[in-house]
Amino acid sequence: MRGLWKPDLNFLKKEMGECMIQKMQSKFVATVMAAFLILTGIVAGSINLFGFIQTIRRYDQMLEILISNNGEFPEPEEFNKKITDDFGHEFEITVETRFESRYFLVSLDSEGNYLDSDISHIAAVSGEDVFIYAEKVFKELKPGKVSKGTCNLYRYRLEQTNRGYEIAFIDMTQQMANLENIRTISVMISAVLLVLLMIIVSFLSKRAIRPMVETMEKQKRFITDAGHELKTPLAVISANADVLELTGGKNEWIESIRNQTKQMDVLVKRLLFLSKMEEGEQMVFAEFDLSKAVLEKVSQLSTIAYSSEKEFETDIAENIHYKGDMTAIEHLVSVLTENAIKYCSEKGKIQVKLYKSGKTIHFEVRNEGDPLEASEMSRLFERFYRPDSSRSKNTGGHGIGLSIAKAVVTAHKGRIYVKNEKNNVVAFCVEL
Q1: Share of the chain above pLDDT 90, in %
Q2: What is the predicted pLDDT for the residue at 362?
């Protein structure tokens, strides 16, 4: 037939069955990787932060020594002031300390005016630079006798003296460069470990989700087999009910048997349809008049709404054509419309809308009723899920319909979602 395309079943199985497996695998990998990134970030960040803090404290100790010793490092044998860090490590002065350290000192009066300076221990700073640094530090002076901080790559300490203020600056360029190298190395190592972990986790994830996959496959086979096995007993029960009615006449018991048999038949058919959808069976894609198909199906269901005294409104745009499985799409329309009628409040309003925006086709079904909880929305399309509320208690249902709707939309590579709107309106939206 021209214009008719029967999709590759293997491809559909991959889209409907393996797609879920891939999502679970991806979710597993993503979870492990996220945990690794968080852990690595905490460890690497802690190491780098600790290194930075220890560096700052060491320079603060050196500045304290310089100011207390008239701008000079004492000889190792003369240094008897005990200074320890948070871990109890004692600060030591060696014969190389004065040669390894680059620093300068500035004296200011009580008004912050320049008095003198000592730049004999650093080559990169001129007299003009000294004045600029001192002025900047003095402007940031905080109340108290001691003030310390960082100015560019210089750590400083300001102390108040009898004649004004003494400021000692020490160059942190080399140490900051070392810390930057450590930070870069940490990032590189983390990146390499991340790639290796991704490879390992991707390989192991197949084994990790294998029990879940096997359970899903067993569930699918059970539903399919049980559905086929139930068809015969249901047909026999229905035939026996007909015989009883012919021999004994109509009564409430026979009517109850008929109603329960019809409900079971609908459930079995939906289970089999869902199983076939997930397996990619009996899917034939062809271009058809979607507007006409939706209007016909909705018109058939509108009588149910009117019979229960509910308002039914349609807004179906004309001449919208779509390439897909017509039977599956009609099933989608039926499921969402029946769901809206079922959960619509007493004498409430149901709205069915079909329109096209750009290249996207929108099918929306709204009903007045109890708003959905956020936790319900996330699970509403799961198989056999029924909200633990008056909605499900009063209306019945088996939690199959919306999972069928989801399967149909997924098979057509579309999107389906639910949202609460103003005035207690619940909207199911499909984008194709």
Answers
A1: 3
A2: 92
For residues 386 and 251, give the distance between their C-alpha atoms in angstroms, rounded to a whole number. Answer: 33
- Residue 372 near residue 335, CB atoms below 8 Å: no
The answer to whether the CB of 19 falls within 8 A of the CB of 410 is: yes
Task: Name the nearest CA neighbour of 201 among 352, 42, 347, 28.
Answer: 28
The stretches of 249-384 forming alpha helices (DSSP H) are 252-279, 290-307, 326-343, 374-377
Task: From 328, 345, 296, 338, select the one nearest 407 (Cα to Cα).
Answer: 328
Please state, in angstroms and rounded to a whole number, the distance separating the CA atoms of residues 393 and 25: 35
Q: Please, which residues have CB within 8 angstroms of residue 308's CB and are 6 or more apart in sequence?
A: 341
Instruction: Please give the pLDDT value at position 380.
Output: 77
- Whether 81 maps to a domain, the answer reads no
**CA–CA distances in Å: residue 62 to residues 84, 98, 101, 169, 324:** 12, 10, 9, 10, 77
Question: Cα(160)–Cα(111) distance, rounded to whole angstroms?
Answer: 12
Q: Which two tokens stand for residue 257?
A: 């048997």
Distance CA 292, CA 193 (A): 57
The tally of domains found in the chain comes to 1
* CATH number of the domain where residue 311 is located: 3.30.565.10
Considering the chain, what is the average pLDDT of its residues?
Answer: 78
* Confidence label for 257 from pLDDT (cuts 50, 70 and 90): confident
pLDDT for the residue numbered 383:
65
Evaluate whether residue 396 is within a structural domain. yes
Tokens found for residue 213 = 């996959």
Question: CA-based angle 313:314:316, to the nearest 5?
Answer: 170
- CA distances (Å), 362 to each of 209, 326, 356, 420, in order? 35, 16, 6, 17
> Model pTM?
0.47
Burial track 229-241 (b if 16+ CB lie within 10 A, e otherwise): ebeeebeebeeeb
pLDDT at 429 over 70: yes
Is position 198 within any domain? Answer: no
Judged against a pLDDT cut of 60, whether residue 164 lies above it is answered with yes
In a domain, 323, yes or no: yes
CA distance 152 to 172: 9
